[in-house]
């Protein structure tokens, strides 16, 4: 149960997934809990990632050839740390802010997240590399439900 919760918390924050519509992710709820205006620009600066690479990662249906540069991995790591969903310099998933955010979602939104993150932390848990851990989680989220996968960029 702890692995499921940890997967949920990390997953829905980094990659708010649901149908890509004007109503999801619930941006008013997201920005209430997470400062995207701070997180996103700082992670661009730290990683040097090209926005086109993030868009390609989000939009592609080709799970065998996902972008996997060090820059995109660094962006994902940074996002996890600055959103306080990953402990700095470790792969420990933090639940504080994520729990409050999750509690404000509708049952339908929660179910989307649960499906998206199912099994991902368990799969990534053995990974000790600080860049590979969030990247592996992200790939898992996308593989679980690409239709509902989203990245803030």
UniProtKB/TrEMBL annotation:
Under the cellular component aspect of Gene Ontology, which terms does the record hold? extracellular region
Q: Which GO terms describe its molecular function?
A: odorant binding
Q: Which InterPro entries match?
A: PBP/GOBP, PBP_GOBP_sf
Q: What is its main location?
A: secreted
Q: Which residues form the signal peptide?
A: 1-18
Q: Which UniProt keywords apply?
A: Secreted, Signal
Q: Which domain of life is it from?
A: Eukaryota
Recorded coiled-coil stretches:
none
One Pfam family this chain carries?
PBP_GOBP
Subcellular location field: Secreted
The UniProt entry's sequence similarity note says: Belongs to the PBP/GOBP family.
Q: What is this protein called?
A: Odorant-binding protein 26
Source organism of this protein record: Bradysia odoriphaga
């Amino acid at each position: 149960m702890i692995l499921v919760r940890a997967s949920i918390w990390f997953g829905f924050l980094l990659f708010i997934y649901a149908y890509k519509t004007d109503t999801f992710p619930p941006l008013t709820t997201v920005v209430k809990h997470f400062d995207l205006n701070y997180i996103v620009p700082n992670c661009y600066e730290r990683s040097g990632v090209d926005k086109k690479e993030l868009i390609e990662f989000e939009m592609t249906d080709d799970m065998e050839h996902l972008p996997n540069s060090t820059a995109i991995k660094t962006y994902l790591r940074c996002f996890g740390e600055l959103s306080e969903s990953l402990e700095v310099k470790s792969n420990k998933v933090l639940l504080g802010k994520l729990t409050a955010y999750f509690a404000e979602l509708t049952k339908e939104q929660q179910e989307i997240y649960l499906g998206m993150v199912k099994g991902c932390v368990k799969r990534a848990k053995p990974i000790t590399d600080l860049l590979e851990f969030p990247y592996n989680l992200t790939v898992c989220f996308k593989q679980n439900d690409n239709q509902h996968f989203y990245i803030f960029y």
